[in-house]
Amino acid sequence: MATIAKPENLVYERPQAFTEFPTHYCPGCTHGVAHRLIAETLDEMNITDHAIGVAPVGCSVFAYNYFDCDFVEAAHGRAPAMATGIKRVLPDRVVFSYQGDGDLASIGMAEIMHAAGRGENLTVIFINNAIYGMTGGQMAPTSLPGMKTTSSPLGRDVELQGYPLRMSEILANLDGAGYIVRRSLHNPANIRKAKKAIRTAFETQVHGLGFSMVELLSTCPTNWGISPLESLTWLEEHMIPAFPLGDYKVAPGVAEIKV
Amino acid sequence: MARELLKGNAAIAEAAIRAGLEAYFGYPITPQTEVLEHFARRMPELGRVFVQAESEVAAINMVYGAACTGVRVMSTSSSPGVSLMLEGLSYIIGTEVPVVLVNVMRGGPGLGNIAPSQGDYNQAVHGGGHGDYNLIVLAPSTVQEAIDLTALSFDLAERYRTVCMLIADGSIGQMMEPAELPEMKPVKRKNWDWATNGAIGRKRRVLSSIYIDPNDEEVANLRMYRRWEEIQKNEVRYKEYYLEDAEFVVVGFGTAGRVALSAVRAARQQGLKVGLLRPIAVSPFPYEVLDELSKRASAFLVVEMNMGQMLNDVQLASKGRIPVEFYGRPGGMVPFPDEISSEIERIATTKLEIVADPRHAWAERLAAILEEG
User: Fold this and answer.
1) Contact: A89, B205; criterion CB under 8 Å
2) Cβ separation of B198 and A49 shorter than 8 Å?
3) C-alpha angle B230/B235/B239, rounded to 5°?
4) Global model pTM greater than 0.95
5) In what order do the strands lie in the sheet with B99-105?
6) A89 contact residues in B (CB cutoff 8 A)
7) B67 at the A interface (CB within 8 A)?
8) Considering only residues 188 to 247 of chain A, which have any Cβ-Cβ distance to chain B shorter than 8 Å?
9) Interface of B with A in 142-181 (CB under 8 A)
10) What integer pLDDT is reported at residue A9 of this predicted model?
């Protein structure tokens, strides 16, 4: 590969923890950003060779192609159970799942609740884009009231289809949870905060301080039916009020971790 | 090791521990709960993994995760719980990782009851989970056999990178009888070249049941099928009783086979030339031995604790040469030896016909018996 920058001028490169496999995500989707933040964290902590990822069913079903660490592919919603099985027999490995809102908050509700309740030393990266991406834009458990999807074509009617679930708030109530925060990927300042949270989540696991999850508010321009740029604005204006950013659980031991 | 009085469920658990089990994930359900309880006490004291999962769905997926790391892992359940596990079972088989699963079968369908049953034969042997797969299914008829087959299951699962399922019924799980446990084998982690246990000093590995390109899935399906052919060639297991000169052959597995043996012995004492074939592996099924027997016997009698499931495999093996009669008690009922003795007598003294579905005739007689009360 041609050298395009002198090392001293290099400001941006592929993290070592990434493979060279091109991602399949739609233009403007924030999965790529979330992936990169995880890869940078694996690099910084120098844990890629000890990491085992658990990919979900959903848009990120192929996540195992992009990280240069061991990976398994779970059934829909079962990633926290599979991760539990791995972590219990290999407690010195760093085990993380990557899950969307349908996977984690709908079909996998029992598995995520009990993994957190048991205080499994796992790290979960939770992508909340308020819609089912892979199957083409159906209503998710995190879809906003009034939000139009292919399975709520007139808009989510809370009388008939209920209200969105706020997973960080729910999981933060569990004693087994060590670190539960919600961040957003809609602009550079928030992406930097998300990166710090992901690092803290992995540190929580390495320190044996219990279950850790970072919820990342994300965009889905394709299924939202708006441009990538409009998606970022829509996230900021509609999703953040419904899913407030913040730290929902920071166990005392986690608070002492400096990243 | 000395023979001791052992309960089937606890014996299965201890046999697995002594075979080098590193992790157990399960959920309570009658009549298998004592398996889980035995592990709950023994695994922590040995420094091994025990997790009571939130459901059978979670349990089988914890098993799936642990299996991907290459350790010896198992779960146990009973019929309704196994139904919940079939999603995970299909993924495990599709990923080609070794797992041992025990079904202590109870009466069904639905919530059914907690009495011994063989109603899950078809679920175990002929699918249940989605997709195109086969698995090894072993059926013990005594506590001793449950111990021996549990230990064997781990070897088979690893040798063929598949699921080895043990189908015991509630009576095997609940009964106590003298049996001998094997010596404790040390836990040995094998250096599998497929295990996802962290890419330390090697290239990364991925374990998955996904083949998004049908061309690749076809190759994977064929690979698994070719392995199944190897299993069929090497792993047929059965036990023969009084078959050398048998004119009538009773076929039964597990507890039904054990009860049938009492009836066969009684019939022999009366001078009837009757024998018993008891499949120990119901998958792969002993088609060839039944094929040969159908060339010299004049009738088969299939005895099951269901409404006729293994029956179809026996019919397939007999190729329509001889009548295949059926006697089954479904719903958690266990036949007494004299019931089977009467059937043997009926078969020996009646002119039988080859029919497509022998269950009809039995259903008529069973309905009449139940009406009489």
Assistant:
1) no
2) yes
3) 155
4) yes
5) B49-52, B23-26, B73-77, B99-105, B163-169, B136-138, B281-283
6) 22-23, 49, 66, 69, 71, 73
7) yes
8) none
9) none
10) 83
Residue B261's Cβ-count burial label (10 Å; 0-12, 13-18, 19+) is buried
Contacts of B309 (CB under 8 A, 6+ apart): B118, B119, B121, B122, B125
- Interface check A88 vs B, CB under 8 A: yes
Distance CA B13, CA B147 (A): 9
Give me A197's structure tokens: 């949270």
Percent of chain B with pLDDT over 70: 100
Structure tokens at B121: 């034969």
Q: Which two tokens stand for residue A19?
A: 């493979």
Query: Cα separation of A74 and A54, whole Å?
Result: 6
- Tell me the Ramachandran region of residue A158: left when phi exceeds 0, alpha when psi lies from -120 to 50, beta otherwise: alpha
Per-residue pLDDT tens for A161-180? Answer: 999 999 999 999 999 999 99
| CATH number for the domain formed by residue range(s) B238-372 | 3.40.50.920
Q: What is the mean pLDDT of chain A?
A: 96
Q: Which CATH class is domain B3-234?
A: alpha beta
* Domains of chain A with CATH codes: 17-255 (3.40.50.970)
- Residue-level pLDDT at A201: 98
Any CB–CB contact under 8 A between A86 and chain B?
Answer: yes
Residue B155 contacts by C-beta under 8 Å, 6 or more apart in sequence? none
> Using an 8 Å Cβ cutoff, are B319 and B325 in contact?
no
Inter-chain touch A82–B64, beta carbons under 8 Å: yes
pLDDT tens per residue across span A145-161: 999 999 999 999 999 99
Instruction: Tell me the chain B residues in contact with residue A54 when contact means C-beta distances shorter than 8 Å.
Output: 65
What band does A11 get if pLDDT is binned at 50, 70 and 90?
Answer: confident
Domain ranges across chain B:
3-234, 238-372
Nearest-CB residue to B61 (from A55, A68, A78): A78
Dig out the tokens for B370 from the structure: 């139940």
